[in-house]
Amino acid sequence: MTARDLTYAGFASIGVVAVALILFSHRANSPVPTLSALFGRLMRKRTTRVALVLAWWWIGFHFFVR
Amino acid sequence: MHRWIDPALLILVVTGVVHVIRGAPVDAAIFVGVAAALILTGLIELKGRLGPARGTGELPSHPIVVLAGSIVFGVVVGWPRFSVVSETVLVVVGLVALAAVWRQGTIETTATTATTAIPPVRWGALAWVVLALAWCGWELVSFVHEVNVDDVSIGHPTLSDIVEPLLAHPIVRWLALTAWIAAGYGLVRTGRRAAR
Asked: How far does B67 lie from chain A, in Å, by closest CA?
């Protein structure tokens, strides 16, 4: 396995875990909150709200414009 | 901890420093500038010079409308890659999104609201934190290794190196733009609801 393969495997693993967490969080009585619930709680503060929206925007600007 | 020195502000400043290290001064200025503007807003708010919060109204949420709007946005803006039009549109979208969540203040958690309206953050939320840290950590490791080799094809590509060739395909770019604008709309809508 090359270093490049290892890097791909790392990102793929993180993606798989993310999908698994999304599915698991939507189960009844799941101890893991859904992303919507988590963001809803975090975004009660202006600083967190703005930081999350800025992070989302920067990702788009980085990939689609640069 | 001081009222305005909170984790989100620290993350914005640290992100700005990381952008300086990776040689992206414009990105650094954006993150540090937003952090400075947030501190300024807090100071103005403390002195009572900020008017009542506006723009807390509910945004449309009909799935068909949101999906149709996102698809149109993805195709129209993503049609030419790296054009002045797409760059301008994305800048305007960012400014509108930030403005849409900026004016609402911070909802203070009181004993009453903490036990009724606001669900507690469960320990399971740590799973998301660990995932986010793993993603950032792996990206950082890839970036550090990438700069040590001349040919990225034999080293550790960052997520940008992996995704950018995919976005050269129009359909992938349209799908990605559609998903991005829909996610942003959902994020802004969630933020506005959370601040009410």
From this structure: 18
φ and ψ of B168, to 5 deg: -70, -25
Question: CB B128 to CB A41 under 8 A?
Answer: no
Query: What ipTM score was computed for the predicted complex, to two decimals?
Result: 0.89
The whole model's pTM is what?
A: 0.84
Tens digits of residue pLDDT in B64-115: 877 888 888 877 777 777 778 888 888 999 999 999 998 776 766 544 444 4
Q: In Å, how far is A16's CA from the nearest CA of chain B?
A: 11
Q: H/E element holding A66?
A: none
